[in-house]
């Protein structure tokens, strides 16, 4: 999916919501657990309930790996169930030496090899250019690089000052020079909205994947005010706030209500800030 | 496996070799490909041929993920085949917000959840303390933190100077303060041997996982001279140099010869530097 298609879907749906399918077998409603594939059934109902209000889905791969090989099948079924109109992100935060990063890219981008065919994958920048470039070689795929993450530990290393700015600023600036940089997006936590204006000065045109609205407490209004650009440029993620909005037989209805609420707020911000 | 057991195995075998099972379905000998599980058969023969000369095995998870759910089964069969005497490392370079890192830890440490039960997992430090602590909570497991990696891109961010030293030095110093730090090991590339003496000043007692001897060109002699401590403190990895030493029906014999050669060199360094 190219940038134009993503933008048009956002405008048509008046939403830049990404639903995070962080579906933990130990946390989904009890009554699903007797089924053959409880997590897939959970995801299926969540997707049916929320697809009208969001433009993207983001399964966090950890939740599927934690179930072993069976989890990988659940992930594949989930990905195949997501409507083709929706942008799909493998939230994997992968990265290794070049040779090996090529295998990670194969795992998430090459259906003939792994059964998976995501639009995008999140990648950790610690190992530098040659750990990221194998993902960028896929010319019809997106590589979402961690920049300033939403969690408390982001302060440990990402905020350290160097001669070229803070570490996360250096990640933003340096990666702009890489071949295929037009296929990059960046993760900036919603909890970091105060830094968004400055981040936008460094990367005015790139899309941002913004987790942390919902359970982690970030403000959607601040994120939208400071982060939106002329192509919208935002995919704001909510996982637990939506998928665990309810815990009974009406969990999907409750997820729908939460997603709808966020979409309605986003529609206001599209009017206000775009 | 605790530090004492690892040390005793190294001394008994006169080897600190770790064999990296980076088994790529497209690179293993052709004649294996007609079998039911070619990568497992490859690994089985490599393990049989090399177990006498090494103390650890390190499958890089990317190579198994790239085969989808089936790859996860191959990984599990491989792990179960490795002798209980050998230290097992899931080279996964994982890391995410706390909640999610807990799922990654579950994936590699909790056999009842995922079918896998590794001794150790490699973890990326970019997201800081709360992304690493869920792994450290497993009191009988090891967390191997990336510090100074073997690849060219290590220079992009790891070598940036801050007021507390280079980024990788700050990772080493900061992580020493974390709860469970005694369960940490660190990845330092063999190509970075010139920095090993300084690294040992910061972390004299911790084990180092050292990739990059072999295909990536690091010097085993330099690594051993500068990196060995009184508990040996080194697990030196070779993947492609051993597992692809041969490409015909005698590939296992060729792998054995290469592993034996490295072990014999290591025996000399144990005499010289321990």
Automatic annotation (TrEMBL), chains A, B:
<keyword id="KW-0665">Pyrimidine biosynthesis</keyword>
<keyword id="KW-0456">Lyase</keyword>
<dbReference type="InterPro" id="IPR001754">
    <property type="entry name" value="OMPdeCOase_dom"/>
</dbReference>
<keyword id="KW-0210">Decarboxylase</keyword>
<comment type="pathway">
    <text>Pyrimidine metabolism; UMP biosynthesis via de novo pathway; UMP from orotate: step 2/2.</text>
</comment>
<dbReference type="InterPro" id="IPR013785">
    <property type="entry name" value="Aldolase_TIM"/>
</dbReference>
<dbReference type="InterPro" id="IPR011060">
    <property type="entry name" value="RibuloseP-bd_barrel"/>
</dbReference>
<protein>
    <recommendedName>
        <fullName>Orotidine 5'-phosphate decarboxylase</fullName>
        <ecNumber>4.1.1.23</ecNumber>
    </recommendedName>
</protein>
<feature type="active site" description="Proton donor">
    <location>
        <position position="93"/>
    </location>
</feature>
<dbReference type="Pfam" id="PF00215">
    <property type="entry name" value="OMPdecase"/>
</dbReference>
<comment type="similarity">
    <text>Belongs to the OMP decarboxylase family. Type 2 subfamily.</text>
</comment>
<feature type="domain" description="Orotidine 5'-phosphate decarboxylase">
    <location>
        <begin position="16"/>
        <end position="255"/>
    </location>
</feature>
<dbReference type="InterPro" id="IPR011995">
    <property type="entry name" value="OMPdecase_type-2"/>
</dbReference>
């Amino acid at each position: 999916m190219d940038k134009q298609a993503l933008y048009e879907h956002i405008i048509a749906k008046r939403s830049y919501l990404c639903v995070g399918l962080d579906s933990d077998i130990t946390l989904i409603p009890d009554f699903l657990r007797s089924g053959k594939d409880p997590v897939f059934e959970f995801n299926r109902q969540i997707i049916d309930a929320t697809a009208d209000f969001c433009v993207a889905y983001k399964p966090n791969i950890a939740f599927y790996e934690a179930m072993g090989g069976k989890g990988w099948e659940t992930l594949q079924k989930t990905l195949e169930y997501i409507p083709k109109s929706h942008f799909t992100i493998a939230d994997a935060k992968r990265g290794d030496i070049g040779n090996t990063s090529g295998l990670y890219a194969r795992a998430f981008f090459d259906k003939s090899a792994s059964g998976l065919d995501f639009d995008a994958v999140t990648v950790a920048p610690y190992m530098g250019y040659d750990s990221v470039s194998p993902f960028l070689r896929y010319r019809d795929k997106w590589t979402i690089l961690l920049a300033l993450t939403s969690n408390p530990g982001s302060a440990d290393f990402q905020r350290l000052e160097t001669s070229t700015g803070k570490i996360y600023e250096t990640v933003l600036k340096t990666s702009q020079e890489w071949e295929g940089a037009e296929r990059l997006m960046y993760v900036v936590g919603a909890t970091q909205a105060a830094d968004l204006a400055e981040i936008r000065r460094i990367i005015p045109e790139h899309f941002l994947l913004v987790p942390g609205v919902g359970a982690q407490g970030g403000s959607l209004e601040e994120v939208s005010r400071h982060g939106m650009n002329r192509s919208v440029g935002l995919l704001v993620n909510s996982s637990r706030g939506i998928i665990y909005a309810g815990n009974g037989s009406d969990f999907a209805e409750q997820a729908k209500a939460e997603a709808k609420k966020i979409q309605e707020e986003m529609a206001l911000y599209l009017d206000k800030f775009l």
